[in-house]
Amino acid sequence: MSTYIYKPIIESAKKLALLCGLCLFTNVSFAAKNCDALLKDTRFDHTKFNDYRQHVNSGNPAPPYLGRSNLLWLVEKTHLDPFLNDPSGLQKNFTSDLLYTLQMFPNDYKALNVLIEYAENYGGEFPNPNKTPSMPDVDCLFETAVKKAPNDPIVRQLFGVRKFRRGDYEAAIENFDEANRLGLRSAELDYNLGLSYFKVGQLDKAKEYAKQAYAKGYPLLGLKKKLIEAKYWP
């Protein structure tokens, strides 16, 4: 996935004001497994997430001050970046920070990408040593992202990656196909589809998408090697 680079330009006084403003949002309760609390949160238009991201990546979050773009920048800076900038960050327990980020912005690509890797460190779900009953499961958070932004192909692609990593290849194909239907065109998506179809034994489909991925310059040769071994290449 892409790495997002931040070049925020905010004076110290504005940082303090942002921190005070964020206090208004820190009482978001953790969702139960059905994610009802997340779905009821209507403060932001999550279908415009790409607009917020564009403003953040520009290095100059857009007005109005304390608006959605500024809040996205602050939430990620406070709750994600400290762990991502630490080489051992994903080995640490930062469940509350990750959950908070996804409760504020359920379809935050950066957070969803981190969620996939973080959960894999704990068997596919959040670490929950205290058996907290209200701890949401990971798929629930992806389902919420889909419901909040149903026409966002990146969310679908990430959900497909999550399903693939958990061995649910049929569900992975369903999500990758939906990402494609929603307009995403990339060598990575073609490769993911090809690999998923290979996993379910549909080698003709796997070959079709592999050829598309490699025609677009995809660098990894794992799928091609699998197809060669299965005598489905070229």
UniProtKB/TrEMBL annotation:
Signal sequence extent: 1-31
Keyword entries, A-Z: Signal
Protein name: Uncharacterized protein
Organism for this UniProt entry: Plasticicumulans acidivorans
